[in-house]
Design brief:
This protein has four helices and four strands. It is an alpha+beta fold. The longest helix has 30 residues. The N and C termini lie far apart (67 Å). Homodimer.
Length: 145
């Protein structure tokens, strides 16, 4: 009887170990899945959003506008103060855009980061590229809640 009990305990340990190893392999396989979200550090509790809307001049070509888009999208690689950047073009069906076609949302962790961004040489260089094509701009900043 003691012998059977010992065998049962050993088999249980071996089976439990196999299940544990298989679960670890599954977790490693999941970690290799590119569609699985990657853990990142927690975002600050509040973020400063800098919303920029552009209305381009009628004579600005699609190529000019694409150069401006690419230059804006390059700013996070040139200015460390930028926490994130997202953008898009108007797709509203309400037709209330008033000629503004592009929206860029630059996110900062602090007012100090925004204060670094505004006079930054890369931002000034972008402004020089944008200037000849800009008909109007709207800028709105707010803190997330």
């Amino acid at each position: 009887m003691a012998r059977n009990l010992i065998c049962l305990v050993v088999v249980s340990i071996l089976l439990g170990g196999c299940v544990f190893v298989r679960e670890c392999e599954r977790i490693r396989e999941d970690d290799r899945d590119p569609a699985r979200p990657v853990a990142v550090t927690a975002a600050p509790s509040r973020l400063l959003r800098h919303v920029v809307l552009f209305k381009f001049k009628d004579d600005s070509s699609a190529a000019d506008i694409r150069r401006i888009e690419n230059a804006f999208l390059a700013l996070p690689s040139r200015i460390d103060a930028i926490y994130s950047l997202e953008w898009g073009t108007d797709v509203s069906v309400e037709n209330l855009h008033k000629g503004f076609t592009h929206c860029f949302i630059v996110t900062f962790r602090s007012e100090a980061d925004r204060a670094t961004y505004i006079p930054h040489p890369a931002h000034k260089e972008f402004g020089e590229l944008l200037g000849p094509h800009l008909d109007d701009v709207l800028v709105l900043d707010y803190w997330t809640k």
